[in-house]
Amino acid sequence: LHANASEISAKNKRALEAAKASNAKKSSVAAKPVDPTLLSKYGLTKDQLGKISGNAVTAVGDSVMVDVAPDLQELMPNTVADAAVGRQAYSVPGILQSYAGRGVLAPNVIISIGTNGTIGEDVFKQIMNTVGDRQVYWVNGYADRSWIATNNQFLTSQASQYPNLHIVDWYDAVKDHGDWLGDDHVHPNTNGSVQYAAEIAKA
Q1: By the 8 A CB rule, do 151 and 114 touch?
Q2: Is 96 exposed, middle or buried (0-12, 13-18, 19+ CB in 10 A)?
């Protein structure tokens, strides 16, 4: 399930090097020409892929992100993915602060957290304060766990309070697609990871 770690690490290294170079030059990271094979794989238009392919991204999450990160890094090569099995929301502020302190917290932040427990208002506010005016793409959860509905309702309620907060509705996308999930009905399978990344790309 988690055989992606070495691939994620190698791509993280390249993305961090690109971020540091971009900061040094005080310029944006250039987008690569659109790869037509990605359009069909992820169900994106040329315009959709062109808008995101050069984005610098910091993606933080739990084991769901471990599964999905290679697809995000395929779509957006300048993505640094920081994901860990069993991660709870309370870990995220410190992780983001670490990247910010090193000057490599990207202008686009993807968060996939809440599978393992509640998010909580205090932690949420810490996260949003840390990211500041960066664009935040927060993916809601899908699992047969008591706190998932609470987390999703809370995220929806916060969207109107933060103009830079975009809720990616994975729950709605996957609820009628059990074939996108693994045997645990929580983690995306290979096709589900593609769909998950596509939902983020379209947000």
Answers
A1: yes
A2: buried
| Distances from the Cα of 122 to the Cα of 54, 88, 95, 140, 167, angstroms | 33, 14, 16, 18, 18
Q: pLDDT tens-digit profile of 170-197?
A: 999 999 999 999 999 999 999 999 999 9
62: left (phi over 0), alpha (psi -120 to 50) or beta: beta
pTM strictly above 0.85: yes
What pLDDT does 26 receive?
A: 46
Q: What are 29's two structure tokens?
A: 């990271």
Q: DSSP letter at 144?
A: S
Q: What are the pLDDT digits (tens) for 1-30?
A: 455 777 777 777 777 777 766 654 444 555
Structure token pair of residue 11: 């791509």
Q: What angle do CA 142, 145, 151 make, to 5 degrees?
A: 65
The answer to whether the beta carbons of residues 52 and 117 sit under 8 Å apart is: no
Q: Give the separation between CA 15 and CA 169, rounded to whole angstroms.
A: 26
Q: Report the 10 Å Cβ neighbour count for 93.
A: 20
Report strand pairing: 135-139 vs 165-168.
parallel
Q: Which residues contact 179 (CB under 8 A, 6 or more apart)?
A: 189, 191
- State the residue for tokens 């990344």: 197
